[in-house]
Write a structure and sequence with these properties.
Oligomer: heterodimer
Low-confidence stretches of chain B: 88-92
Mean pLDDT of chain A: 91
Strand order of the largest sheet of chain B: 1-2-3-4-5
Low-confidence stretches of chain A: none
Radius of gyration of chain B: 28 Å
Number of helices of chain B: 5
Order of helices and strands of chain A: EEHEEEE
Number of strands of chain B: 5
Number of domains of chain B: 2
Strand content of chain B: 5-15%
Distance between the termini of chain B: 105 Å
Distance between the termini of chain A: 42 Å
Mean pLDDT of chain B: 86
Strand content of chain A: 35-45%
Largest sheet of chain B: 5 strands, antiparallel
Shape of chain A: globular
Order of helices and strands of chain B: HHHEEEEHEH
Number of domains of chain A: 1
Strand order of the largest sheet of chain A: 2-1-5-3-4
Helix content of chain B: 55-70%
Radius of gyration of chain A: 15 Å
Number of strands of chain A: 6
Number of helices of chain A: 1
Chain lengths: ~90, ~200
């Protein structure tokens, strides 16, 4: 499993990578996961349904991450914005 | 006669110069400040166009790995994504028979809700994902990361994203004519895609 984080000026970076079946690596993944959530990030797991549909699942704790998930993507939490008019 | 007049002219010029000099100095200094500010504004400290381009390439690759081929092609060709509203039991590229509304997701612009059957624009949802750690002096994600963040939030928890956004009537920030043109482009693009698919099936 990979924990990725979107980053301005860079694209995604790999925060942590490991096998959840290995306790030490899982612990590192959990710590990295908590750090990002504490920093106010949202965490999403991209998924693919049997019919081919793609979507994402927002998770609030490491326990909610499917064990077979390949990656968790962290991104800044949504905020009501008012960017400059684009017309 | 000429000498007094010439002398008077010289004195007048010198007097005017002395009177105008402070004003001219101030104007010159102000001009220098404005020019320096303009240069700072157009090239922020640490800004590297190459880095931004590489960031966008990474973001595009990540987006592509998360959405369907159909959606990726839509974004690549048209510059926006369509996300069906009320997500649930439907395939991403299925005809919009069951969804009563959908969203157009643009990079760094409000999400626009509309009715697929009629093209009526419903609302603009102004939402951003600012990274306040500003790793390179900017809180702004690469374009494709912004689109992916919106796509993930909409497909995972549409209600939550809409709740976080500032809702406005259409036309507040995104030109409705532009949205209508984009809907027409999307419709044409999907027709052409269907025709290509039908053609390749017949050829096979």
């Amino acid at each position: 499993m990979k924990l990725l984080r979107m980053k301005p000026g860079h694209g995604e970076i790999v925060l942590a990578e490991g096998d959840v079946a290995v306790p030490e690596q899982e612990r590192e993944l959990i710590e990295a996961f908590r750090r990002e959530l504490d920093a106010g990030m949202w965490a999403a797991v991209p998924t693919q349904a049997p019919g081919g549909r793609r979507e994402a699942e927002l998770v609030k704790s490491f326990d909610e991450v499917p064990r077979d998930a390949e990656r968790v993507i962290f991104f800044p939490r949504a905020a009501g914005g008012s960017p400059q008019a684009t017309r | 006669m000429g000498l007094p007049l010439g002398t008077a002219a010289i004195v007048l010029v010198v007097l005017l110069w002395e009177l105008a000099r402070p004003t001219l100095k101030r104007a010159l200094a102000r001009g220098r400040e404005l020019w320096a500010a303009h240069r700072r504004g157009s090239a922020p400290i640490g800004y590297d166009p190459g880095r931004e381009r590489r960031a966008e390439q990474r973001a595009r690759a990540l987006l592509r790995s998360c959405v369907t081929e159909h959606d990726w092609a839509m974004y690549r060709d048209l510059g926006f994504l369509r996300v069906w509203g009320g997500l649930g039991a439907r395939a991403d590229d299925a005809p919009p028979a069951q969804a009563s509304y959908a969203y157009l997701v643009y990079p760094h612009k409000p999400v626009v809700a509309y009715v697929p059957d009629t093209g009526e624009l419903l609302n603009e949802y102004c939402v951003a994902f600012p990274d306040m750690s500003k790793p390179y002096g900017s809180a702004r994600l690469p374009d494709s990361d912004d689109v992916l963040a919106k796509w993930m939030a909409l497909t995972a928890d549409e209600r939550r994203l809409v709740g976080e956004a500032n809702m406005h009537l259409p036309g507040r920030q995104v030109d409705p004519d532009r949205v209508r043109r984009d809907l027409a482009r999307l419709s044409r693009w999907e027709r052409e895609l269907s025709a290509r698919r039908a053609g390749s099936v017949r050829a096979a």
